[in-house]
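Handout, section 3.2

Students often ask what a structure token actually looks like in practice. Rather than define it abstractly, here is a full record for Transport permease protein. The first block is the sequence as you would receive it.
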Amino acid sequence: MNSLPAASLWYTFQAIVVRELLRFFQQKSRLFSALVRPLLWLIVFAAGFRSALGLSITPPYETYILYQEYIVPGLCGMIVLFNAMQSSLSMVYDREMGSMKVLLMSPAPKAFLLFAKLCGGAILSLLQVVIFVLLAWGLDVNIPLLGLLYSIPTIFLTAFFLGSLGLILANHIKQLENFAGVMNFVIFPMFFLSSALYPLWKIQESSLYLYWLCKYNPFTFAVEMLRFSLYEQYNVELIALVSGVTLLCAFFAINTFKAKK
């Protein structure tokens, strides 16, 4: 197959990304739920654990912090996680309706088309995280202003990682009804078995087994990477780990993805 001109690829990329954005903004409840979920955690969950959970000074923090400040990076990761899974759900719907098959009939390479969808999802994740952090500022959560700028690349990398994982899941979900099972057996364990809500050293105090599960959970790598970037630091080791997992998931997703089961 002859390669398409760069201009044609660019127009294709734009069309796919814009389609993802339009679909999101047409579903107003999706934006509402994407923001309400982490805000409830920030307001209710943090209020309950503020006095019960003491936090020591660990990187990237240079002083003692309140619990609500600790969980903000984890909640940002949760936003990206749920947005990626929502995108995978929409791909299952597109496959059932036949529109995914039409998209993959394009002369553009399949890898390019899926990359464009991942970019659309990453832009939406970035938008939701920015809005959430702005709302968190209104609740007196101290996140450095420059931290938002520092976190843009790490949010995109996290979105590509979780989006690629979502592509893998979408390829194995035959019906929309099965998505609830994915929520229960993939998303929630990935989120709760991480450092999103509590530091690893606290988990180690209660269970060494859970500690090792959380420590080597790829989502923990992403959350900690976001944590460092929100405080104007880049952890090269974490970036390398998330990049490696992203490339692995993307390779597997692209080579196994089918338009229709």
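Discussion prompt for tutorial groups: The mean pLDDT is 86. How would you have guessed this from the sequence alone?
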